[in-house]
Sequence to fold (382 residues):
Amino acid sequence: MVSEPGHVGYRHRRRSVDRTEYDLGGHTPEPMTARRDEGTTADTRSWLAFEVELFRHDPLEWVVLTGDRRLVSLLGLAPLVIVFPLLVASGLAPLRKETPVLFLLFALIGANFTLIAIVTSLSQFVLGRRLESPGEIRAKTRETISYREDVANTIGRSLMPVKPDAFFLVLYRSVRGELDELEAVSAEGRTRRAREELAELVSGLQTHTGYVVDLLERPESGLKHALFTSLTADYEDAVHRAWYLRTEHADEFTDRVGEPLGRLTETLKHIEVASRMFRTVFIEAEVSELSRYLLYVGLPVQLAAVAVMLLYTSPGSAPPLPLGVLYVLVPAVLTGGFVPFLVLASYVVRLTVVARRTADTFPFSSQLRSTVALDETFSRDR
Fold:
C-alpha cells in the first residue's frame, strides 16, 4: 500500500531520502551563501578583466566613453588621495587653525548639496519626458516592429533577438559575412582603382567588425558596449563610399560584387538606426544611474563633513582632536568631498561624447573624408 503524504511511513521515508541526498559520498553540501560568494567573486574578476581589456585597447576611449564610470571616478580620485596627505605631512597645511578648515568644509558641503539637488531634479525631468499616451506608445511599437522586420529581411533571418546587445551582434555578424563575401570577389573589379577602393573599404571594416563581434560575444558586454562600438566608427563614410561605388561606377564591378555591396550598405544603415534608437534608452539609463550614485556617495560625504565641522565647535582654542588624528581625518574628508564632482564629471564627459558623435543626421556627416566627399574619378588603368 502506498503511504499518503500525511502518513508516518511517508514522512519517515522522506527524511531518509533527504538524508541520503545530503550524505551521498559522505560529504556535506556547501552552503548556498558560500557558493553565491564564490560566484560574486568570479563575476567581479571577470568584470575587472573585461575593463582592463577595454583600457588596453584604447586608454583614451576608456576614460571618455567605454570605461565603467565608477572606475574612471576612482582614477580621478587617485591624485587627490596622494596630494592632500602630502600637503599635510609636508607642513604646508599644518591644520593648526580652524578657520581655513571650516571654510573648506563649508564650501564642500554647500557645493555638494547644490550639485546633488540640481542633478537629481534634472534627472527627474528627463525621465518624466518618457511619459507617453497609449496612442504614442502604440505608434512607436509599430514603428519598432516594422524596423525589426526590415532588418530581418535584409540579413535573411526569420526572427531577430529582443535584447539590444544581441540585436547589434546579429547585425555585426551579418556585416562580417558580407565583408568576407566581398573579399572573396574583390578581384572581379574591372579596373585597378576599383579593386583598390573596394579592398580598402573591406579591410577597414573587417578590422573594426572583428573587434566588435569579439567584444559583444563576451558575457560582460551589454547595451552600452554595443552602442559605444557603433560610435567609434564612421559608418557614414563607409556607406557613402559603398553608394559611390554602386552608383557612379557600377560598370566597374560584376553582379557578384554589386549584390553583397548592396546588402552591406543596407546593414550599415540599420546599424546607424539602431544606434540612434538605443541612444535614448542609454542616456536615460545613464542619467538615472548618475542620480543614484550621487545620492549613494553624497550622503555619507555630507554627513562626514558636517561631523568634522561640529568637532570644531568644541570650546577652547586647542584643536578638537589630536593632530595625529586630524592629519588623517581632515584629508580623508576633503578627498571624499570631491567624489561627487568626479562622479558627475565622468558621466557628463561620456554623455557629451555620445551626443557629439551622434549629432549628425544620417546619411549626412561632417566627418566624411575629403577624398570621399569630393567628386572622385576612377582611373581606367587596368
In short: The chain has two domains: 55-128+288-357, 134-279. The mean pLDDT is 78. The chain has 14 helices and no strands.
